[in-house]
Amino acid sequence: MNPRLLWWSALLSSSSALAVPSDVCVDSFSAGAQAFFQEGFVAGERAAVRLSLPPGAYPATVTGLRFLYGGADDGAAYQVVASVFDDNGDSIYAEEGFPGTALVSETHPVLSSTSDANEVLFDAPPTVVEGAFWIVIGMTNAGLPSVARDVGLTAGRGAVMVEGAGWVDNGDLGVAGDWIIRAMVEAPASVPGSCAFVGEGEGEGEGEG
Prior knowledge:
Blueprint: H1 3-18, E1 20-24, E2 34-38, E3 46-51, E4 60-67, E5 69-70, E6 77-86, E7 102-111, E8 118-121, E9 127-128, E10 133-139, E11 146-149, E12 158-162, E13 166-169, H2 170-173, E14 181-187, E15 202-206
Parallel strand pairs: 2-15
Antiparallel strand pairs: 1-14, 2-11, 3-10, 3-12, 4-8, 4-9, 4-14, 5-11, 6-7, 6-10, 12-13
């Protein structure tokens, strides 16, 4: 093999071996906590969470998403559109900081569950080299099952793509918590405050939004 190709092969293998997996989130959901499944969505609408990493964690590859999806039809199969967006878009109330350029968008099967998290792995995982990004779950059905929120809203970290209106901040819609959607990332260093689903939670549906 060409020596240059050998060098690149060794470099890529070394980089892959050094990647540290982390789950990154905004929500505070934990085992046994209450989750509120949002029944106000219609097909085509989306729930989004804005994430950012410390400087030492870039470049980071978003390998997939973990999230709660349920509130009805436990065990039934559905589909969602899982995406990662750059934060270079706008909303009806702001000119920047919302989902803009799609880095990846794929349709994946999920199972409705009021307690267990769903996990999707991207076929073409994107790499984020700097700055904030959005992780997004798009609905293919109306009402429940759907994504869930926790209790307590983190300002500027959640949004909804509303049919006919575009992106709207969670706070402007009256959503009273953070979407329980988490990014699975591989980065050069572990992400402080990273979170993972452990055990089960309790869920109920609600109609706000």
